Amino acid sequence: MSGEKTEEPTAQKLKKAKQEGQIGKTQDLGAWVGMLAASVMLPRTLEAAMDHAMELMEKIPDTIVNPDPGKCLAVFRDALMSAAWAVLPLALTMMAVGVVAAGAQGGIRIATKLFIPKFNRLNPFAGIKKMFGMQSLWEGVKALVKTTVLGTVLYLTMKDIVPVLLSAGRLPMATLLATISDAAIQLIRAAAAAGIVMAAADYFVVRRRTKKQLRMSKEEVKQEYKNTEGDPHIKAQIRAKQMAMARNRQMADVPTADVVVVNPVHIAIALRYEPEKGAPRVVAKGKGPLAQKIRDIATENRVPMVQDIPLARAMNKDCEIGQEIPAEFFGAVAKVLAFVMSLKARGAAAGLHRNPNPTPATS
């Protein structure tokens, strides 16, 4: 059936889908990669925060002894700035990771068409259908797998730290905090690594589903080709009009020619020679009906016509309209022009004449 969507989406369809925000991507990938990046940046962030906190704690006793409002505000301002500078690298890293993750899944594009309200989005039946569709089933499986994997990671991480916590009373505070901090970082990294694997699987599923939704029928492909490349019938009409305009232009140049070399019936080549512009140029040429039209215009405007069958055939093959004649024709055309000048000198140039020095025929 022509309406069955069996064809892969074309480049134009994919481009339109991107503009409308219909891109196969998963939000989980950016979140999990961001968590992994945070686990790398977090120790440095905590270290910087502790250093700033120690500096702040050193200023507090002096402020308590001399409770000057200006000093208190200065300490408060320094505390805010220190916190901001400590968190800034982590925030910039998370932002960069989010941008890169979005770009890697199909580019960053503001889909303005998503802001346009569509009433079909409010259709409750479509929502109910999605609740029991394959997409809802995949989301349920994904949530179950995510819970199982993260639970396993949490168990494997905590089983090593629980004995340490049980014996916390015998450990120095610095050692205990370092142990808990290392365990937390390891937990975050393990969870992030597992999450990235799950997000990658989700990405391929979403991409496959989106591409399936964008499939086209054979009729849609044909219609898009017509819209993009143009209807073949219209293109043929345009080419016909362009050819007609080109013929009209060269017909208008025939009266300006110095001579028309003819076959004498099937071919006509109109030449104009302006010494200051170089070699003679072809202002019009044609075969069959077009050659007859050139001869008729030449007759009406008393342009000399010279019959030279080999020269006419060769020039029709190798010369282009508007271009100078190739060098191999200089000698033969010079003889034709000299013959025409001699006819004009006698006042008998108009009409058809046989070339007294015809070009030798070539095999």
The N- to C-terminal Cα distance equals: 58 Å
Q: How many structurally independent domains?
A: 2
The biggest beta sheet reads: 5 strands, mixed
| Sheet/helix structural class | alpha/beta
Mean pLDDT rating: 76
* Sequence of strands across the biggest β-sheet: 5-4-3-6-7
State the shape.
Answer: elongated
- Would you identify the regions where 5 or more consecutive residues have pLDDT less than 50? none
Rg of Cα set: 43 Å
SSE pattern: EHHHHHHEHHEEEHEHHE
Strand fraction: 5-15%
Give the total of beta strands: 7
Q: What percent of residues adopt helix (DSSP H or I)?
A: 55-70%
- Give me the number of helical elements: 11
InterPro entries: T3SS_substrate_exporter (IPR006135), T3SS_substrate_exporter_C (IPR029025)
Transmembrane segments: 83-104, 187-206
Keywords: Cell projection, Cilium, Flagellum, Membrane, Transmembrane, Transmembrane helix
Biased composition (Basic and acidic residues): 1-10
Question: What is the fold's blueprint, element by element?
Answer:
Layout: E1 5-7, H1 11-19, H2 27-65, H3 69-104, H4 124-131, H5 134-166, H6 173-213, E2 216-217, H7 218-229, H8 232-253, E3 259-262, E4 267-272, E5 281-287, H9 289-300, E6 305-307, H10 309-318, H11 330-345, E7 352-354
Parallel strand pairs: 3-6, 6-7
Antiparallel strand pairs: 1-2, 3-4, 4-5
Give a written overview of the molecule.
With 363 residues, the chain is α/β, with parallel strands linked by helices. The protein has two domains: 23-213, no CATH class; 243-354, secretion proteins EscU (name from scop, 3-Layer(aba) Sandwich), CATH 3.40.1690.10. 66% of the residues lie in helices and 8% in strands. The chain has eleven helices and seven strands. It has helices at residues 11-19, 27-65, 69-104, 124-131, 134-166, 173-213, 218-229, 232-253, 289-300, 309-318, 330-345, and strands at residues 5-7, 216-217, 259-262, 267-272, 281-287, 305-307, 352-354. It has a five-stranded mixed sheet, with helices on both faces. Strands 1-2 form a two-stranded antiparallel ribbon. A hairpin with a 4-residue loop joins β3 (259-262) and β4 (267-272). α2 packs antiparallel against α3 (69-104). It is elongated. The protein starts with a strand and ends in a 9-residue tail after the last strand. The model has no long low-confidence stretch (mean pLDDT 76).
